[in-house]
Amino acid sequence: MISDGTRDFPRIVNLDRLGIAALAIGLAVAPLVLSNTYQLNVLVLMVINAILATGLAIVVRAGRLSLAQATFGGIGGYTTGVMTTKFSIAFWLALPAGALLAAAIGVLLGLTSLRLRGFYFAIATFTFSQLAIVVLRAWTPVTGGMSGMFGLPHPTGFLGFDFSDPRQYYYLVLAVLLVAELVYYACSVSTAFGRGLTVLGEDEVLATTLGVPATRYRLLAFALSSGIGGIGGSFNAHFIQGVSPADIAPIVSVFVVIMVLAGGAKTVVGPILGAIILTAVPELLRASAQWSMVFYGIFLLLYVYLFRDGLLPVLKSACHRVAGNRTINGSSPKTATVLPASLGAAKAAPRPDKAPKSPNGESIISFDRVGCSFGALQVLRDIDWSVKSGCINGLIGPNGAGKTTFFNVLNGVTPASEGTVLWQGTRVVPVPNEMVRRGMSRTFQHARVFENHTVAASILMAAEFSKREVSNSHLKWLIAFFNLQDAALLPGRALTHYERRLTSIAMAMASNPAVLLLDEPLAGLDDTETRQLSRMIATLQQETGNTILMIEHKLSEVMELCEALTVLDHGQIIASGAPRDVAKNPAVIEAYLGNE
Amino acid sequence: MQLFLQQSVNGLLLGGMFALISIGLSLMFGIMKVANFAYGALYMLGGYAAFWASNLLGVPNWVAILVAFAAAFMMGALMEGLGFAKFRGNEEATLIFGLGVALIARGGAVLAWGSQSRFIPFSFNTYRIGGLVLPAARIWACVASLAIVAGVYFVVNRTAWGRIIRAVSDNAERARLVGFNTRLHYLLTAGLATGLAGTASVLLIPVFSLSPAVDDSALYTAMAVVILGGLGSIPGCIVGGLVLGIVTAFAFGYLPSPIAPAIPLLLLILTLAFKPDGLFGSAERAV
After folding, report:
1. Chain B interface disruption, residue of A114, A290, A291, A408, most B CBs within 10 A
2. Cα torsion through A501, A503, A505, A508, rounded to 10
3. Which end of chain B has fewer CB atoms within 10 angstroms, the N or the C?
């Protein structure tokens, strides 16, 4: 079943390779065709822009729009400029220093991105670039102030290369671009880090919940991105043999952003394509700075109205149409992830992995006098609780009782304000990705899935992000168990509500957790689906022997499924124990029906 | 002491003018939840509308102000109708759309009208009280600023239309279901917000003059004020404006001029890093 969908993939991959080969050949022979000095200058500028854009694409992929890439270029350019002219240090020694300085400052800026996103982050980066201009202007003895530095040396030649020749310089920066592109490739789809970064940009909460270490990944992304920016800036400064505050004006950073978006921020060669087009077109039109600005503006409007994924996907689907490839299940080829052979071929009947048990017989997870408040609002108070291992636990209570906050404290989305959380009897401070590693995963009230990744790829990634030992058989079993075979190659956005719910649970189960937290798994399902899924949850627990804690409002299902029940009201536990006893508890009846 | 008093006065006046620049942006944030990157461009275009009305048609200044309001109102409403309405809820698309319009307006303005500074003939004196310099243009801009901010506050919080737009802002879907024409109210709010930017632009021509480059500084100042004061809070506009104004005035009064511009930037970046809800924003808003 699963392997059926993979049949038409080879041809699509070939076309991709064809395109990349064409681009590479084009870049390699360009200076042989366009050979006068002006044209060569434009070509070098184009490749340097491509380096900056490729670097920027790393943080764009991680979900942050930075308006400071030209500033990192400036940091690189000024560093190598000062080192080569004032201290007579060789360019090739100064280059890594500039890159490291840019990377270090990039990490500092990245720290703000942990709290800021979208518009706020864009403004923070914009402010940072303004600040850099002020500093460079004021520090006249070193930086040359307003007019900047000039007379910078060309990089020293080696192996018979002479980098004062623009054509040779072109091949030099082209080689640098190739390296930058390989780094970017590692940050996109080819490594676990890249896949983690990608989903971090798409759905931060879900990615973190599945085990992606957001802080570390994002800071690393900033270091790489600004380091590449610094290198690009150095090569620019030592090509035009000067650097000035005008090189890092915010508008230059905006242009780099446009290159990334226009080419296709989510694609691997899109930023290069964007840089080529947006550098070449104004030059071809012999446009003044003002006309270029208008042109870039028009380009942005076209982007936002017509090709929100960038030009590359548009180009690609056009090529596919010409080549007669059909798109997979109505989705564009770029988002469909090939199902690895390991998941597709069914040798033996897949079996689930057994969930790990708490070693010392302690309750797997418990609360000791836990409280949680937001400002003056106390959502949870004085909670003493432990889960009953190896069965389904229920957490119920009226709306606003604090049930979801209970989950958030358990897996570390929200820190507890008081008290301690104990994992297998040991005190822990929960952080989402660490809790996944320990063996606890969760779902959300609104079924979150990765909109741009197929069900199969999402389940594979979930297993990968958890960094836990999971067998392929287990993952295959999950797809079969949740009846997701037919949907396995559909991207998240094409799923029905029920399929989304099943996928989200399958993703949480992909790490073979000891504890599975389900936040209202039955919400929004019709009667048939409710019955199906509650049966699945029961079977899931029996087959894997794990511990399930579920928040649920459908009380008849809760009564049937759960062996232990905890009732929350106004942030406090008002009853717990066997479902039948809890149902008779007068406090519970009052909380649900009100005081008559 | 003299310097201290003078910079205090300068800071207060500057703060009032900053509030004037940012009131429209604040309204857009508060009601429409939109970060309009073309705000500065519309501010600049509003100024040019007034300049040409005054220069070519010779209209009196108060008419020029109305022309600026009307021109900026229409451009803002147009942006809402053609863009923001379409991209509502998609922050990135909204941001990019605004940026695109801003680039076209900026480049186009230089191409059409050149980059030189323009003035409208306002006749303002400079008062001196005991050695303190008080330029009338700045005082009037501040008075206008206070009046406009108070007016916007009154309209949003105390009038029937204000109640409607707050309802639309709170939950557009429900407001539509109970019979409000949410599209119209969004258009009106967007128009009003940028219209106020156009008005501010004219009122500040005697102080900052008018050139295509004012779009960047207006956008940036407005963003800074709105962030310092707390996003979308109308009284926060005054607070943010005064803080930024006083910090700027003292930085320029007491520090060497190459370093002084760094201080307001540092203030903003630190606010963003540590108190993104604004200097006086409460933690509960973040929840």
Report:
1. A290
2. -140
3. N
Output the DSSP codes for A177-227: HHHHHHHHHHTTTSSHHHHHHHHHHH-HHHHHHTT--HHHHHHHHHHHHHH
Range of lowest pLDDT (A334-348, A547-561, B16-30, B172-186): A334-348
CA atoms within 13 A on the CB side of A146: 1
Note which residues in 93-152 of chain B have CB less than 8 A from chain A.
93, 95-97, 99-108, 110-111
Residue B6 sits in a domain of what CATH number?
1.10.3470
- Number of folded domains in chain B? 1
Q: Rounded CA gap, A71 and A51, in Å?
A: 14
Residues of B in contact with A116 (CB under 8 A): 272-273, 276
What's the rounded Cα separation, in Å, for the pair B109 and A424? 67
Q: Place A80 in a pLDDT band, splitting at 50, 70 and 90.
A: very high
Enumerate helices (H) and strands (E) in chain B, giving the number of each.
13, 2
Q: Judge whether A268 lies within some domain.
A: yes
Judge if A466 and A588 occupy the same domain: yes
Same domain, A291 and A388: no
More confident position, A537 or A317? A537
- Tokens 């035009």 correspond to what residue? A240
Measured in Å, how far apart are chain A's first and last C-alpha atoms?
57
Give me the residues paired with residue A549 across strands. Answer: A393, A517
Q: How far is B96 from chain A (nearest CA, A)?
A: 7
Whether the CB-CB separation of A442 and A504 falls below 8 Å is answered with no
Nearest to A300 among B35, B103, B276 (CB): B103
Contact A567, A579 (CB under 8 A): no
Chain B hits for A290, CB-CB cut-off 8 Å, are 107-108, 110-111
B284 touches chain A (CB under 8 A): yes
Q: How distant is the Cα of A111 from the closest Cα of chain B, in angstroms?
A: 8
pLDDT, tens digit (0-9, with 9 covering 90-100), for B160-184: 888 888 888 888 888 888 888 888 8
Query: What was the pLDDT predicted at A509?
Result: 92
Q: What are phi and psi of A518, to 5 degrees?
A: -115, 120
Mapped onto helix, strand or coil, the DSSP state of residue B59 is coil
Q: Is residue A175 domain-resident?
A: yes
- CA A151 to chain CA centroid, Å, is 42
pTM attached to this predicted model: 0.86
Question: Picking from A330-334, A501-505, A551-555, B153-157, which range would have the lowest pLDDT averaged per residue?
Answer: A330-334
DSSP single-letter state for residue A1:
-
- The answer to whether A304 contacts chain B (CB < 8 Å) is yes
Residues A285 and A222 placed together within one structural domain of the fold: yes
Kindly write down the DSSP assignment for every residue of B67-82, as one continuous string: HHHHHHHHHHHHHIII
Six-digit token pair at B183? 């599209």
Buried b (16+ CB within 10 A) or exposed e, A565-587: bbbbbebbbbbbeebeebbebee
Q: Which domain holds residue A482?
A: 365-593
| Candidate from A187-201, B151-165, B166-180 with smallest mean pLDDT | B166-180
* Residue B258 CB coordination number (10 Å): 15
Q: Do A238 and A92 share a structural domain?
A: yes
Binary contact (A304, B258; C-beta < 8 A): no
Whether the CB-CB separation of B29 and B226 falls below 8 Å is answered with yes
All residues of chain A having their beta carbon less than 8 Å from the beta carbon of residue B100 are 297-301, 303-304
B110 to A273, B116, B198: CA distances (angstroms)? 29, 9, 18
In a domain, A348, yes or no: no
**Tell me, what CATH number does A461's domain have?**
3.40.50.300
A141 Cα to chain B: minimum distance (Å): 13
Query: d(Cα B89, Cα A14) in Å, to the nearest integer?
Result: 37
Task: Encode pLDDT of A278-297 as tens digits.
Answer: 888 888 887 788 888 898 89
